[in-house]
Design brief:
The protein is mostly helical and 136 residues long. Helices cover 47% and strands 10% of the residues. The relative contact order is 0.21.
């Protein structure tokens, strides 16, 4: 759906939501099953508080973020808190897309896999293997 699409205008947040849903649907089934309680949110940029807490001065430097406690650090004794979330930041992703020439759908998949990978506490090699399984 998104791989060969050429955009006349910048994709909207709704377009990104559709592309993220498409990318998520292409993830391996066991990966999706274990991450089905994650919320995926699309925002234009990270908040100033988030950028400050990460020591990032330029909002375009952060493409995505996992917010929560990774599964390898959770305990059954933990007090329930906010749901774990993955944020995809539209404007920085668009900037990266314009600079890299990479297909937008592939870039969104890459960021999504990377951020969900943090939910599992995966290594970069684990995330790369999952990304390859999506066909990107």
């Amino acid at each position: 759906m998104t791989k060969g699409r050429h955009w006349q205008t910048a994709p909207t947040i709704a377009d990104f939501e559709a592309m993220a849903a498409d990318a998520y649907a292409r993830l391996p089934a066991d990966f999706r099953e274990k991450s089905n309680e994650l919320l995926i949110r699309i925002e234009d940029f990270a908040t100033d508080d988030v950028l400050e807490s990460l020591g990032i001065g330029n909002a375009y430097e952060l493409l995505g973020l996992y917010h929560g406690v990774s599964l390898n650090n959770k305990s059954v004794m933990d007090v329930p808190r906010q749901p774990d979330m993955v944020f995809l930041y539209r404007r920085p992703i668009l900037e990266e897309w314009a600079e890299s020439g990479e297909a937008l759908g592939d870039l969104i998949t890459h960021v999504l896999v990377h951020e969900i990978g943090h939910h599992f506490g995966f290594s970069d090699d684990d995330m790369e293997r999952i990304e390859k399984a999506t066909g990107t």
